[in-house]
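Milestone 3.1: sequence recovery, worked example.
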């Protein structure tokens, strides 16, 4: 190992290329400083709706007879939807999103997908995360590449944070920008060894003069020192924070409240990532889908309103996406199977509120699925260029035109 470079180690070691997850006994370790790009303190919060969200029962074409023919059991009633316009409405449980829409803080991007769609959860999610197909060399994700391009700041705060017990998203993977995965604020600390003397000793060891040109050891030592500083800040992040309103009692809302605490504490971290699972609704979809949409709608709206109340509203953009939509026709189990195109949501005070693009036609299908008209990488280009203020071409592995969901910078 004495002759291994840090880059070689990160490339060849599965332990290193898999960004560390911090549990009850593990220290905060091997993280890079936050990205200090030209984003002016702006923050991106990604909400992954894993499993394939049924877009047709999320943004409902309630006046379309083809919709009712295809879904005799699952169709949402005309009188129940939260109307967006004379043809489309939100699912009736999405009152939080309806409030954001009325306030001008919700952009609904319709018909999002990609060419030659893949209906495998794992492959489709990898495509969304990396912007590459399986026959290409996928070593990092689109957000990891952004953090890499943004560069290393002087701050010891993490470049990004993933909150949750699930596996870290491929989207955050990078060669050099280290992104911690944490379960809760209480677990992101040096548990059991918290004395000032211990911290001082570790810092002195990490900052000690090093000889011999061992790049890997230097990386570990410097990262450990900055990780301790970040750990200390995160430990006290919530001490002076009080939510402006009550968050829902759901796992997703708990994660978003943790993000709110960290932002309010002054962390310079520009990217946060959370996930809600369960959208693979093959059977008895109605009740499960209602619960999931309510969790996303209420959680995100509460979070954004909380951030606005704390003076951070203009810094926040939330991106809510799923790996694919569902098929137009319901199945025999009162559910829906894997489909293709679906809606993506952007929330924040800067978004262009309302519908972006046309709702996919239910009369012009491809193998029983909706045809997409907006490439998901156009959504990413919008976020990267118009929110995070960086060139998206290298990050997305191609040129994709931004949408008008956000104003040009």
């Amino acid at each position: 190992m004495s002759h291994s470079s840090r880059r070689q180690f990160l490339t060849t070691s599965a332990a290193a290329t898999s960004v560390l997850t911090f549990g009850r006994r593990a220290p905060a370790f091997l993280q890079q400083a936050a990205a200090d790009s030209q984003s002016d303190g702006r923050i991106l919060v990604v909400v992954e709706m894993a499993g394939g969200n049924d877009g047709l029962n999320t943004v409902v074409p309630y006046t379309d007879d083809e919709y009712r023919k295809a879904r005799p059991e699952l169709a949402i009633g005309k009188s129940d939807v939260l109307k967006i316009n004379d043809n489309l409405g939100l699912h009736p449980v999405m009152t939080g999103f309806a409030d954001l829409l009325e306030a001008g803080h919700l952009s609904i991007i319709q018909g999002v997908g990609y060419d030659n769609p893949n209906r495998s959860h794992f492959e489709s999610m990898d495509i969304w995360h990396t912007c590459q197909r399986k026959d290409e060399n996928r070593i990092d994700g689109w957000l990891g590449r952004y953090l890499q391009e943004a560069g290393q700041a002087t701050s010891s705060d993490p470049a990004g944070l993933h909150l949750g017990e699930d596996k870290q998203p491929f989207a955050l993977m990078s060669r050099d920008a280290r992104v911690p995965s944490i379960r809760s604020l209480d677990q992101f600390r040096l548990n059991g060894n918290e004395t000032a003397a211990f911290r001082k000793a570790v810092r002195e060891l990490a900052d000690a003069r090093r000889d011999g040109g061992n790049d890997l050891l230097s990386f570990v030592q410097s990262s450990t020192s900055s990780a301790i500083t970040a750990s200390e800040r995160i430990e006290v992040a919530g001490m002076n924070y009080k939510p402006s309103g009550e968050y829902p009692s759901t796992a997703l809302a708990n994660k978003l409240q943790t993000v709110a605490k960290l932002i309010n504490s002054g962390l310079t971290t520009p990217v946060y990532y959370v996930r809600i699972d369960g959208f693979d609704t093959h059977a008895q979809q109605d009740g499960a889908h209602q619960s999931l949409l309510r969790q996303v709608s209420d959680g995100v709206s509460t979070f954004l309103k909380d951030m606005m109340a704390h003076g951070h509203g203009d810094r926040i953009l939330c991106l809510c996406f799923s790996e694919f939509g569902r098929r137009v026709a319901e199945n025999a189990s009162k559910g829906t199977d894997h489909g293709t195109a679906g809606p993506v949501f952007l929330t924040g005070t800067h978004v262009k509120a309302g519908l972006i693009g046309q709702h996919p036609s239910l009369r012009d299908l491809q193998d029983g699925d909706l045809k997409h008209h907006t490439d998901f990488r156009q959504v990413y280009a919008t976020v990267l260029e118009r929110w995070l203020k960086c060139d998206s071409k290298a990050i997305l592995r191609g040129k994709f035109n931004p949408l008008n969901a956000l104003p040009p910078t």
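The mean pLDDT is 84. Residues 145 and 326 are 30 Å apart (CA to CA).
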